[in-house]
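Loading example: each entry is read as two labelled lines plus one structure line.
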Amino acid sequence: MDERVHEHARTLVEWSARVEPGDDVVVEVGEGAHDLGVAVAAALGERDANMVTLYGSPEMERAHRLAHDGGFDADPEYELALYERADAALFLRGSRNATATADVPSERSQAYSRARQGIREARFGTDWVSTVHPTRAMAQAAGMSAEAYRDFVYDAVLRDWEALADEMARLKTVLDDGETVRLRKAGGPVETDLTMSIAGRTAVNSAASVAYDSHNLPSGEVFTAPYDTAGVVRFDVPLTLEGTRVRNVTLTFEGGEVVDWAAEQGEAALETVLTTDEGARRLGELGVGMNRSIDRFTDSILFDEKMGDTVHLAVGRAYDACLPEGEVGNESAVHVDLITDVSEDSSLTVDGEAVQRNGRFRWEE
Amino acid sequence: MDERVHEHARTLVEWSARVEPGDDVVVEVGEGAHDLGVAVAAALGERDANMVTLYGSPEMERAHRLAHDGGFDADPEYELALYERADAALFLRGSRNATATADVPSERSQAYSRARQGIREARFGTDWVSTVHPTRAMAQAAGMSAEAYRDFVYDAVLRDWEALADEMARLKTVLDDGETVRLRKAGGPVETDLTMSIAGRTAVNSAASVAYDSHNLPSGEVFTAPYDTAGVVRFDVPLTLEGTRVRNVTLTFEGGEVVDWAAEQGEAALETVLTTDEGARRLGELGVGMNRSIDRFTDSILFDEKMGDTVHLAVGRAYDACLPEGEVGNESAVHVDLITDVSEDSSLTVDGEAVQRNGRFRWEE
């Protein structure tokens, strides 16, 4: 086995999930993630942790959802009990076909998802971490060879996370202390000039560890929960929404809400998102990608939004970690990240002072 | 997908496990059993049952057990809670390497197993069924081509179970009403002549369904719990004990206990079993194989013991279903089945009347 698989597993178990002896750990192994599963099992054994292994199979899920009459039971107690009693949950994604569930009607998937709110909350109540084992199907989705894709994934995952966390802490301090953020980008067909309030909000230093309220490996972004958004923003990085390619989205905000939208491709899919509920037209997240080992778009949000020299905004739900204790942020059934490349003609300023210009941070000048 | 995979799945869900709408079902998918997993997911969906999918991976288990310090926690609560709340549990075996755990020291496996008694009991408290998806590794273990092995498995699994249950009911009646069984076989180097008491014991009509207290698919045997065994018996079907081939076992009983034993090959492995505890030297089971679709030995006890024209005896633990309510039968940490071919020179008599002679039952004469 590629030694990087073992390094990945140790990073996941030790740095990301902080597994301790005797911890009750759920490991969900994707159809194509067997090798990472074996390495994670060894890493959990080394920590003398307990292991329950789930099989994350989109093909089984598709077969079950399609054959079911659609009246899904709410939060089946046996599955709820498993997560409620678990200390950590590790999700090893790794699809063998990125479009394995393409023919499941979205109402069916949504009905299933709605019936499982309690299970989702129980899962998010554990020290959960989601990661990816590089498969041929994912390489294909990224338009890459299998070998180049493996290098890409391990470069992004096997970082000196402590050092990156220290660097990201600088941006977190700026955002924690700041009141107003302004994002500008010139040169495109639509000029971006957007202001947001972040006063009273706490930024998350997303350093790929539960110790930093960060649940993705790789990670490498700093994010907060903006409000009172005004202005225009264009997102020049494409994304895929429920199987539909969406390109060059433009959103216009007034008084914190999207009042106009457009997309050069996939506008109907964008409209579906924005009309889900009221919260879907407000921002839930402002994130700054700082993982420079991620140097290309691969059509996977786990990687794309952490790419260096990018900024992303999400419409929909805000993360609790960014909000004052007990305060409810933007609520919505959706959370969709939209990404803009800030490597050129761009600036991000906080309270009038530039913190990033053309992808370079103030402390890098 | 081979249509027989879907028939197998429907037989498992409908005939074997009797899954009802809303049932909470655990499905454990072996490393090589993905296709059966997909078909079972569809069959569970058709029944509007809930599904939690586990991954039964010997390679992950090996990695975890070997890396662990060996002081396994007793019955981790999260796993216990899952099984305690489940209605049914379906185990889809299907190895990709029948010797995947060959280098795990047996003390380590035993320590793990001992720590999980409560989980095992919770699992046996569900409507559980164990079955097998034919893999190349299993074909290899059976010395067969993949295609011939698939035919073999589906012939054994896709039976008219209702009809076989009716036939097996005849033998059950004989055994339920009987007091003394005598098994004889002439012609070998050691002559078999063994008597056992079965008075007061109840035979199980093992028709591959929880409705018959039967938890294997395929099944096709009638078994009871004998005692007061006396005489000599030779088992001419080979078996594998913890990776060791054992051939031509002879056991001599006096007053219900093994007082002498021999094997032409693997005697040390046999001795390890017989000296485990006191119960390991008494019989826990007398079984008569009645699945004539199983017409060859494949070195898998799931199939071998159900083969037509065979009788098997197990040293060790007896099944509760054979005992009067509240009575404890032979207790032991082991249950090892030993098989003898009764197609020739053989007879099985109950209270002096032949019920089977050279593999043919009384009602077939």
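Residues 294 and 307 of chain A are 5 Å apart (CA to CA).
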